[in-house]
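Board work, copied verbatim: Acetyltransferase
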Amino acid sequence: MDIRPTTDQDLDAFVDTVHAAFGLFRSAAAEDGGGVLWSAYEMDRGLLAVAADGRPVGTAGAYTFELTLPGDVLVPTAGVTGVGVLPSHRRQGVLTAMMRHQLTELRARGEVLSVLLASEAVIYRRFGYGPATYTARLTVPRHQGALAVPRAGAAAGSDSGSDAGSVELRQRSECGEIMEEVYDRYRRTQPGALSRPHRWWSSGAGQPPVSRAPRYVAVHRDADGTPDGYASYVLESGTLTVDETIATDDAVHTALARFLLGHDLVGRVVFKHVPTGHPLRWQLQDFRAGEVTGDTDWLWVRLLDVPRALTTRGWLTDGELVLDVDDPFLGERGRHLLTVRDGKAECVPTDREPDLSLDVSDLGSVYLGGTTPSTLVRAGHVRAHHPGAAALADALFRTERPPHCLHWF
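↓ predict structure ↓
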């Protein structure tokens, strides 16, 4: 078996192989509103595993994204995608060989992080990836969708106070540029968010609202008429399903939620991607009206260069932490002294006794602030070497708001 990089001439072979790996056909992959994902493939970043007879048996690709880190830091990131092995060649080391080859290439490009959406949760941890952002569905019956009056009042200075803007209804086909611009503003300040390159929007790659599938879009404008939020939705059989709600602040999100929950001829409203700890459920007059389902992982993170990754993100709390990080897939282990002062970090090798010992996949889980180190200590995955170690790590990795990723790739 040989693993080789792909070119534009390999697109059909790549697409056919990854579809066969998942038991899909091209026509089926674009149904239900999904766009033609491979129109965004970057063939200069793909890999093909080729058998001795020249037949492709495995694929792995990557997109070029920016990931927003805590502290509003934007970092180039590889979005791993299109990973598959034909059923006839599984459990023969093909996937392991491709992933090792890919990680080596990503490091050679100077990238410090890679991310992916895991088709199965048990596959990618062994390659050093850990779940780092989470998402859930919130379903609200229309007749219980009234929002409560904020008890703190607008004078409290909350972003969720009064809204002087307006909401207008558009169709997806006529507001693509608005959505692209608003999403780009949003993702630059939301930890865990990925960029959506222009070619995704222009080609309709992926899922709604990026794809050109018919959708209504509620566009929010501020008092000056500038778009600062949107919600993409479809109404079928009495259920209004919201693909995503993008808002530059809480007041805009509240205005869009009020619009959606007040829609006529609707039995229930389903918000597909609600981040952990979002206040929308608390804003309902009837707290029990909001049913949370489908609580699951979304973005998985893999650190390719531990010191560079730790010094790239922003920090809220000063302190020192010694991390003993094991990377069994790449056969590496390092002990790092993380020192944070005034929002910036230094990370250097050290012989000091560790505060925490952890796998690189667990470091990926806590890196964006969506998983507390103490949770992984209590789960038995991270070892705390003294009683205060977990609390110290929790304080250091704390972020102003939970990371969230909406982009599907």
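Residues 155-160 have pLDDT under 50 and may be disordered.
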